[in-house]
Write a structure and sequence with these properties.
Layout lengths: L5 E6 L4 H15 L4 E6 L2 H9 L5 E4 L1 H10 L4 E7 L7 E6 L14 E4 L5 H13 L4 H4 L1 E5 L11 H11 L5 E5 H9 L6 E6 L7 E5 L6 H10 L8 H6 L5 E3 L6 H8 L7 E3 L3
């Protein structure tokens, strides 16, 4: 038998997080599956709680999942994820009037990166560039912005601040995730930006659980996958969580991030004062 209620961890990277889980919690309770949500200020504390058995599942970033996987010697797996967690990429963008067309054109130029613990704006793009034989710590005048450490880039604040610096001419280019750039495009604010490099695809968040846990993970997953975005009680929190449909986790896609973490700390660039 599982714990009653089912204990879930979520990091409050934005005030909306508590509203999302309050609404989801009400729906789960109606399905006779009550949730107890623990909120954390950063992913390190959430991973601690998961590994120590303080929560049944953690709504983790890809980096939090990989760190938990490493700490448990692989005795952990991903349960479910959003449909929108698949197919992420990191991109380097420049202004449309920039002379830069390729990575080679950015050698010796100032290029921005996001928070040191952001998989999409720092860790994975650096890893991918090095795999291509292009070390950004050497080839660029890298400029990193640590704005929301502990949140693993969830806020997108550093990426947006670095894009503003590109527009202002302070940087020749900057790294941003495909998701951030899609959001910029929806706002009609991308006409002055152009992509010159794209990383391999990678997945983002997932619900992580310990293999040894006796909690009722199957029932939790069953209910997640049954959620319908057209349900009046679910449409708002699902929209706020950027999910159209919950799906089975696809763990094979985390290989690049696992390799990057195993290779050791990835930190490039002089740190700029966070805006």
């Amino acid at each position: 038998m599982g714990l009653d209620p089912y204990c879930l961890g979520a990091v409050v990277y934005h005030p909306k997080v508590e509203s999302i889980w309050e609404q989801f919690g009400g729906w789960f309770a109606e399905q006779d599956f009550p949730l107890a949500v623990s909120y954390f200020d950063d992913y390190e504390r959430q991973v601690d709680a998961l590994v120590e058995g303080g929560i049944d599942t953690a709504w983790n970033t890809n980096l939090a999942y990989v760190c938990a996987l490493e700490r448990t010697n692989g005795a952990l797996h991903a349960l479910a994820m959003r449909d929108t967690d698949l197919g992420w990429t990191s991109k380097i963008v420049v202004r449309t009037d920039s002379a830069a067309e390729t990575l080679e054109d950015l050698r010796g130029k100032r290029v921005g990166f996001g928070d040191a613990d952001s998989p999409q704006a720092h860790i994975l793009p650096v890893h991918a560039l090095r795999a291509q034989g292009f070390d950004p710590a050497v080839e660029f005048l890298a400029s990193r912005m640590d704005r929301d450490l502990g949140k693993h880039g969830d806020t997108g604040g550093a990426e947006l601040a670095q894009l503003a610096r590109v527009r202002a001419g302070e940087l020749e280019g900057s790294v941003a995730s495909s998701v951030t750039l899609d959001a910029v495009e929806r706002l009609g604010d991308n006409a002055d930006l152009r992509v010159v490099w794209t990383s391999p695809e990678f997945p983002h968040c997932n619900f992580s659980v310990l293999d040894s846990s006796q909690a009722d993970h199957d029932r939790f997953k069953e209910l997640l996958l049954a959620m319908d975005a057209s349900d009046p009680k679910l449409c708002e929190p699902m929209e706020l969580e950027y999910v159209n449909q919950w799906i089975e986790a696809q763990e094979h896609g985390y290989g690049d991030l696992i390799a990057a973490v195993k290779a050791g700390p990835i930190v490039v660039g002089d740190v700029e004062v966070a805006a």
